[in-house]
């Protein structure tokens, strides 16, 4: 009886750990090993992005100065190893030293400190 319960618990935990709505398998190429990520302020919700889409802090999107719109990018927090897949749909950030602006949802998924606005990340482009 206890073995079945333990097996159920372990199996459930493994399924939860392996499942994520924003994990994508595929091949990625390192674009920038020493990038700094920030996130959009809420005041941008509903505004049009450079691609013409409406911005939402609840989606997995990002702004980058050079990558083409629609590019899928994996952004990995160098401190904790958490990563998120985002789609480039805007231009920016336009602050010196920053390389990518993430939606708030994407940023909060990979940070450990919700009060910090910058992260050291690795940016990889999906092939």
From TrEMBL:
Q: Where is the RlpA-like protein double-psi beta-barrel domain?
A: 35-122
Q: Does the keyword Lipoprotein apply?
A: yes
Q: Which domain of life is it from?
A: Bacteria
InterPro entries named among the record's database cross-references: RlpA, RlpA-like_DPBB, RlpA-like_sf, RplA
The record's annotation in SUPFAM superfamilies points to: Barwin-like endoglucanases (SSF50685)
Question: What is the membrane topology noted in the UniProt record heading this document?
Answer: Lipid-anchor
Look up the EC number in the record and give it: 4.2.2.-
Q: Where in the cell is it found?
A: Cell membrane
Enzyme class, first EC level, given as a word:
lyase
NCBIfam families per record = rlpA (TIGR00413)
The entry's function note states: Lytic transglycosylase with a strong preference for naked glycan strands that lack stem peptides.
Instruction: Name the family.
Output: Belongs to the RlpA family.
This chain's protein is named: Probable endolytic peptidoglycan transglycosylase RlpA
Q: Which organism is it from?
A: Flavobacterium suaedae
The lineage is:
Bacteria, Pseudomonadati, Bacteroidota, Flavobacteriia, Flavobacteriales
């Amino acid at each position: 009886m206890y073995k079945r319960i333990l097996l159920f618990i372990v199996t459930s935990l493994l399924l939860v750990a392996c499942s994520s709505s924003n994990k994508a398998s595929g091949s990625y190429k390192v674009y920038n090993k020493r990038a700094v990520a920030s996130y959009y302020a809420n005041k941008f919700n509903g505004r049009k992005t450079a691609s013409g889409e409406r911005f939402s802090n609840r989606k997995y999107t990002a702004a980058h100065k050079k990558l083409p719109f629609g590019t899928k990018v994996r952004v990995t927090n160098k401190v904790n190893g958490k990563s998120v897949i985002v789609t480039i749909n805007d231009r920016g950030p336009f602050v010196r030293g920053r390389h990518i602006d993430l939606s708030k949802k994407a940023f909060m998924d990979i940070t450990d400190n919700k009060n910090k606005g910058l992260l050291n990340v690795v940016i990889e482009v999906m092939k």
